[in-house]
Amino acid sequence: MLKIIQVAIILIISQSFLLKNACYSQYDNSRKIDNAHSLIKYMLEYHQDSTNLADKNREEMLLFIGNKVSLFMSYNRAITDTVRAALLLAEQKGLDSQILMDQYAASGRQVSRFRYRIYKNFAENNLCYHEYVPQNYLVYEEPINVMKWKLIAGEERVIKNYKVKKATTYYGGRNWIAWFTPDIPINDGPYKFSGLPGLIVKIEDSRGHYAFSLISFETLNTPRPIERIIRSNEVKTNREIFLKTVENLRANMIPLVQDAQFSTEAQRVIAENARRRNNPIELRAD
C-alpha cells in the first residue's frame, strides 16, 4: 500500500526473528491471562508539541492490577474495545448493531491518542508493549526492572490524601520525578513505571511535558479479566526499532498521505497534526 510503511515493516520483520518470544509463549493460546482485583485511574496531562507548551492535552488512563499481570491503557481505548466486542457479538447473533453504534456515537466518546497496551508480567519480570502502527500491531518486550530508582530521603508530602515519598529515575531520554505511597503496597504505576515500594501516585518528567496523576483507586468487587488480545497482523520487534519506525512515519507523513491520494484539505490537516505531534513520551531508546 504505502511504500514507506512497507519498508519499515520489512525492516522490523528482518530484525525481529532474533528476539526472544517469552511474552508470547503463554499467551498465544489463551485470551485471559489474569484477573484484575484493582482498578486505578490516572489523568495524563501532556504537551504533544514541544514548540507550543501553551497547548496542553489530557486523557484518562486505566491500570488494571492482577495477581501476576497488570494492564495499562487509555480509558477511551478500553471503551472502543468494549464496543467492538459488543458489535462482533451482535453480528454473530444476527442482531441489529446499528442501535449500539448510534449510542456510542451519541456518547461523544473521543478516539484515543494512545493506542498502546502495556502488560507487566511480574511473575516473569517481563513487560510487553503493544501498539497499533498503520497496517500492523507492533509488539516488543523488555525487563520490568530496567528503570533504576533513586529514593530521595526526607521529601514527603500528601497527594490525594495519601502520604507519599519521592523517587527519581531516567528513562527514554527524560528524567522522571515520582511520588509513591507505601500505604498501597502495589509496586506498580502508570505507563511502564513500576518497582517502587508502593503505588505511584504521581509521576512527571523534569520538563513538565508528561505528568500522570492518580484520580482514584478501586478494589473491584467482581474480578475483571485481563485479556491478551491476539491480532493476526502482529509484528514482533524491539523497542529501538519501534521508536525509529514511529518517528520515520511521523517525519514522512506528507509523502505518505500524498501517495494515498487524500484530498488537499485532508493532507493539510494530517500534515499539521503530524508536525504538532513532535514530543513523544520516549525520546530515545537508552
Description of the molecule:
It is a single chain. By secondary structure, the chain is an alpha+beta fold. It is 27% helix and 38% strand. The protein has 7 helices and 12 strands. A 12-stranded mixed beta sheet has the order 7-8-9-10-11-1-2-3-4-5-6-12. Strand 10 and strand 11 form a beta hairpin. Helix 1 runs antiparallel to helix 5. The protein is globular, with a radius of gyration of 20 Å.
Helix and strand pattern: HHEEEHHEEEEEEEEEHHH
Q: Structural class of the helix and strand makeup?
A: alpha+beta
What percentage of residues falls in helices of 4 or more residues? 25-40%
Gyration radius (Cα, Å) is 20 Å
Q: Strand arrangement, largest sheet?
A: 7-8-9-10-11-1-2-3-4-5-6-12
Largest sheet: 12 strands, mixed
Tally of separate helices: 7
Average pLDDT confidence is 82
What is the approximate shape?
Answer: globular
User: What low-confidence regions span 5 or more consecutive residues with pLDDT below 50?
Assistant: 1-22, 24-30
In percent, how much strand structure appears in the residues?
A: 35-45%
- How many distinct beta strands? 12
- For the termini, the CA-CA separation is 32 Å
